[in-house]
């Protein structure tokens, strides 16, 4: 393995890591601003211009808070919980194609940490272990409200993973590949998936809300029933990690939604730009296009959060098992029939 | 280099497998089991079997989440009330598991993998495109048997969980 390859990949990984952290930080700011806008308020405006330094102030506050341990026999698992939540939120970004090739130092560099053969499955794998952070942390807090919240979170996660996977299958049937890079290339050639698979898109979107534990599916953090939810016993930066992981998850799931359904880094006229202005500018514009799509989805998450009230638990399970899963199966059947008839 | 990775992974696998059996706390057992499955996925990655590794994590990590939930909801976590099985059932369980292992080893020892033509032609038979073809051409019958097995277990689960009607 040559050192140039290692340096190139390390640079991309560090850049993606920094981007995810930055976006997670500023999502907290954006969430407050959007909430304020939707409720006809001003929102944070003390720290920096327009409250732009608010995330730093929050971070400093969380770091300097008292570190509190509940009376638990499982200190190790208690610390492990936020650790797992944060790491699983960050490692998904490895397979997301952030852009096309760029040409620097006489070398083609792919703007992606790794293009593995099974990246879609990798995303689902990370998703299925993401809930361990919540589950282990909440169980180790030795608090019945935390435990209730974790049981809710994990059963919700297990239920919605099924519908999400089934919605994904119809996309995979069309693309014939499990690589997110190839799914993007296919969309650049044939048109975005959202136009071919609107039903799958809606199912996937709803399931993303459930998987990231966002309102209207944030039953795990139902304050009126469960105090604070799974992080009731956490304080200081350990709680900060849980909150941060939620926003990092939101960013990553927005990125996956954009890559799978909105064409990733593809934008109308990409071929023309590549041919006339060079591939570097094309790749940078592509990255900006992907970034704009991601920001749109993040805004959409917040918009929904401050618009739709929380579901009840039985409504949530009903929606997942009795509506979304049958719809996803029907969507697969229709996709199969259409593919056989028109190919 | 890879050999050392193999040693470390094997140590983790064996250690956590023992801890799964030994630890008194059911939740700790489940967590050790997760770590054990992750190190097994690492073994698959050493063989360059990416698909198998990722599917292993999805299926087993998800399954253990269900196991954790069941442990929390259904099992009695108090040690005092726990009824220990008599010694002879433990022996019977160990012996039957050993017999099953013997049968499997005997059956698989002489079995030749159906991938000789792929090895000869130099195709990467770990890539999912080839893997799918192999599963549905050479291994179609075992594949279908596996799906029938899953169906049967699913129906069985529904039957067990169904409430009995009172006559």
From TrEMBL, chain A:
EC number(s) given by UniProt: 7.1.1.-
Oligomeric form and interacting partners: NDH-1 is composed of 14 different subunits. Subunits NuoA, H, J, K, L, M, N constitute the membrane sector of the complex.
Catalytic activity: a quinone + NADH + 5 H(+)(in) = a quinol + NAD(+) + 4 H(+)(out)
Function: NDH-1 shuttles electrons from NADH, via FMN and iron-sulfur (Fe-S) centers, to quinones in the respiratory chain. The immediate electron acceptor for the enzyme in this species is believed to be ubiquinone. Couples the redox reaction to proton translocation (for every two electrons transferred, four hydrogen ions are translocated across the cytoplasmic membrane), and thus conserves the redox energy in a proton gradient. This subunit may bind ubiquinone.
Record keywords, A-Z: Cell membrane, Membrane, NAD, Quinone, Translocase, Transmembrane, Transmembrane helix, Ubiquinone
Chief localization: membrane
Top-level taxon in the UniProt lineage: Bacteria
PANTHER family linked to this entry: NADH DEHYDROGENASE SUBUNIT 1, NADH-UBIQUINONE OXIDOREDUCTASE CHAIN 1
Family: Belongs to the complex I subunit 1 family.
Cell compartment(s), UniProt: Cell membrane; Membrane
Membrane topology: Multi-pass membrane protein
Enzyme class: translocase
Any one GO BP annotation for this protein: aerobic respiration
InterPro entries: NADH_UbQ_OxRdtase_su1/FPO (IPR001694), NADH_UbQ_OxRdtase_su1_CS (IPR018086)
Transmembrane segment boundaries: 6-26, 76-99, 119-141, 162-180, 192-210, 247-267, 279-303, 323-342
Key word Transmembrane present: yes
Listed GO MF terms: NADH dehydrogenase activity; oxidoreductase activity, acting on NAD(P)H, quinone or similar compound as acceptor; quinone binding
Designated name of the protein: NADH-quinone oxidoreductase subunit H
GO CC entries: plasma membrane
Keyword S-adenosyl-L-methionine listed: no
Automatic annotation (TrEMBL), chain B:
GO MF annotation list: NADH dehydrogenase (ubiquinone) activity; quinone binding
The enzyme's E.C. designation: 7.1.1.-
Top-rank EC class of the record's enzyme: translocase
Annotated signal sequence range: none
Chemical reaction(s) catalysed: a quinone + NADH + 5 H(+)(in) = a quinol + NAD(+) + 4 H(+)(out)
Membrane-spanning residues: 6-23, 30-47, 53-75, 87-108, 139-160
Function summary: NDH-1 shuttles electrons from NADH, via FMN and iron-sulfur (Fe-S) centers, to quinones in the respiratory chain. Couples the redox reaction to proton translocation (for every two electrons transferred, four hydrogen ions are translocated across the cytoplasmic membrane), and thus conserves the redox energy in a proton gradient.
Name recorded for this polypeptide: NADH-quinone oxidoreductase subunit J
């Amino acid at each position: 393995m040559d050192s140039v390859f290692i340096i190139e990949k390390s640079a991309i990984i560090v850049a993606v890591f920094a981007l995810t952290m930055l976006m997670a930080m500023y999502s907290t700011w954006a969430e407050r601003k959007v909430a304020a806008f939707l409720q006809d308020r001003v929102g944070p405006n003390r720290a920096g211009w327009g409250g732009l330094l608010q995330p730093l102030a929050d971070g400093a506050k969380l770091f300097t808070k008292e570190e509190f341990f509940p009376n638990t026999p499982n200190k190790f698992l208690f610390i492990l919980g936020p650790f797992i939540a944060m790491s699983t939120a960050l490692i998904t970004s490895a397979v997301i194609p952030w852009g096309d090739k760029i040409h620097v130092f006489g070398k083609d560099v792919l703007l992606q940490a790794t293009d593995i053969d099974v990246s879609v499955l990798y995303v689902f794998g990370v998703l299925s272990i993401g809930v361990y952070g919540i589950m282990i942390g909440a169980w180790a807090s030795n608090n019945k409200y935390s435990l209730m919240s974790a049981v809710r979170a994990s059963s919700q996660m297990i239920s919605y993973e099924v519908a999400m996977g089934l919605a994904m299958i119809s996309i995979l049937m069309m693309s014939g590949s499990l690589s997110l890079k190839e799914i993007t290339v296919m969309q650049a050639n044939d048109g975005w998936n959202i136009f071919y698979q609107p039903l799958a898109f809606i199912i996937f979107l709803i399931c993303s809300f459930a998987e990231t534990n966002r309102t209207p599916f944030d039953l795990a953090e139902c304050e009126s029933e469960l105090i604070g939810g799974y992080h009731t016993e956490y304080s200081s930066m350990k709680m900060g990690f849980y909150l941060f992981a939620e926003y990092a998850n939101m960013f990553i799931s927005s990125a996956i939604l954009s890559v799978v359904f909105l064409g990733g880094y593809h934008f109308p006229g990409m071929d023309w730009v590549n041919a006339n202005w060079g591939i570097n500018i094309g790749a940078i514009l592509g990255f900006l296009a992907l970034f704009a799509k991601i920001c749109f989805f993040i805004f959409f998450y917040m918009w929904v959060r401050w618009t739709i009230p929380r579901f009840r638990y039985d409504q949530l399970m009903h929606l997942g098992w009795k509506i979304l899963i049958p719809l996803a199966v029907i969507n697969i059947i229709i996709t199969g029939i259409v593919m056989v008839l028109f190919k | 280099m890879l050999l050392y990775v193999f040693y470390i992974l094997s140590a983790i696998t064996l250690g956590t497998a023992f801890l799964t059996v030994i630890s008194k706390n059911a939740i700790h057992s489940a967590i050790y089991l997760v770590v054990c499955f992750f190190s097994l996925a690492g073994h698959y990655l050493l063989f360059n079997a990416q698909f198998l590794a990722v599917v292993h994590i999805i299926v087993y990590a998800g399954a253990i989440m269900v196991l954790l939930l069941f442990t929390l909801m259904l099992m009695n976590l108090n040690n005092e009330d726990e009824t220990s099985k008599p010694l002879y059932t433990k022996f019977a369980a160990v012996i039957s598991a050993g017999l099953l292992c013997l049968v499997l080893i005997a059956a698989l020892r002489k079995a030749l993998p159906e991938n000789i033509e792929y090895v000869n032609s130099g195709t990467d038979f770990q890539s999912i495109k080839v893997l799918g073809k192999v599963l549905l051409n050479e291994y179609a019958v075992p594949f279908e048997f596996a799906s029938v097995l899953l169906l049967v277990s699913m129906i069985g689960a529904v039957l067990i969980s169904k409430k009995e009607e009172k006559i």
